[in-house]
Amino acid sequence: MFNDVYDVIVVGAGHAGSEAAASAANMGSKTLLITMNLQNIAQMSCNPAMGGIAKGQIVREIDALGGYSGIVSDTSAIQFKMLNKSKGPAMWSPRVQSDRMRFAEDWRLLLEQTKNLDFYQEMVSGLIVENHKVVGVKTSLGLEIKAKTVVLTNGTFLNGLIHIGDKNFGGGRAGERAATGITEQLIGLGFESGRMKTGTPPRVDGRSLDYSKMIEQPGDEQPEKFSYLDRIKPLTEQRSCHMTYTSPEVHDLLREGFERSPMFNGRIQSTGPRYCPSIEDKINRFADKDRHQLFVEPEGWNTVEVYVNGFSTSLPEDVQFKALKSVVGFENVKFFRPGYAIEYDYFPPTQLKHTLETKLIDGLFFAGQINGTTGYEEAASQGLMAGINAALKVQENDEFILKRNEAYIGVLVDDLITKGTDEPYRMFTSRAEYRTLLRQDNADFRLTPKGHELGLASEIRLRRMEEKQKQSNNFVNFFRETSIKPELANPVLEAKGSSPVKQSDKMFKMYSRPNITAQDMRQFEVVENYIKENELDREVIEQTEIQIKYSGYIEKEKNNADKLNRLEDLKIPKGFDYEKLKSMSTEAKQKLTKIQPVTISQASRISGVSPADVSVLLVYLGR
Fold this sequence. Notes:
7-stranded mixed beta sheet; 21 helices
């Protein structure tokens, strides 16, 4: 049945598995995507949305490299919002509300049109390992499928246990069974494992809600998109979300169920996501707050199913229902399904290399929640990187690693394998020390040439990026070279409360002022004519504005990144014996021995390794 040896087998078809399969196959590797249910490819298990703070930057990076998440997010979007527009551009983060069913369908159709990709529906119960090298997988029906590399993207399915009040049952998602066998085998092979928890809110019938009592949350007036491809178009119509609040009465009703809550009665022992707490956790931890926001999010264009964002819970279903009925606008609510918590196995990611290949088993890669992360976007980016590196390994080509100053994806992977995580890891802009460089607007400049070199980003993508870069640079130079007289500049400056000028000056200087926008500059005929004559689109105009206004910050951050890269070039010999460094702290020796950093820079980021420890290492290696 499976006579061929696959180059890459991807186990699991969530966001990580889908990106891994797509990238490996698009790079020419004969790939098999094996999953327990082919109807649930790229299922949005939790909220029907992609992007958000820092996560939107990741989706744009995936798209720039030639992955599929940005395209699917755009084609299945029902609303677009650019978050944090009141802050600087390093903080701007795109987010879409998605049509859940269309999202999964679009992913499936894209994968089916991908060359070199086969599909198979069954549970993988184990790996075939010979001499510390993976050579295939075993299925629950006893089939053995051979492969040169394997990517595990098991999500919440590894020994998944679902909790609703005092009831619990095995499952990887509501209505789907858990995956068994793999954890036990990996532990037998020497891997360290742990348990994590995540949760999801009830889904309700939108026809039973009174939206007139809620606050409407429309999309942007001029919606943008994730994908840099021209053929993908922004939304022309959108669906609104709504916002309402809990109340002291709701909190009291929820508290009545605390003694039956698996969160508080000891049934759930594992750690949940700090930044996405359950509603019972919120009212317990923030007892001084008498209300919490709830976002009422439609699940698609035509369905009446609604996602109650902010009400994630594992309380008994009768408690969930009673409390939700007391929320403004939910007085007549009807449930589609209750919220639940799920516990699952993960493997601390310090057991991985930067390529996401495991240190213990050659050819075995981990991506997604198996590495302790939370979120579709974090999972998808790991899947992309694991799929790329599995394909490169088979082709005997150099590995592909993104540095911290090159991409949020680089920050994510480095954080995981260098620092590890003991709670579900979520990406934030604050995790990136070079966030002025890693903006959502320039992901194509940063990554499309790399994606093209890998064979993932098309020639069309590369040409479009180069044209955008050329137009932006030319427009910046136009402002540097064009002067403006006081009689033209001052009316605009004074209207914005900015001090007038006494003599002619370059437009660049005027545009650099913090309160002067692109819209202000377009009041000048010479600027508007330039835009029309050169047919500049919104992306180029925005890119130009950022380059002018933030040129000083960008330059400073580039210089800092260059200094860091010098430390990245200082390699530590493989298998280095830290015990011989007598003047290094014991904690540092233990951490360095466990993680085995590849460079001095990576060593300096390990928790427990001080600058003094790094100096000892530098002196020794310098000899």
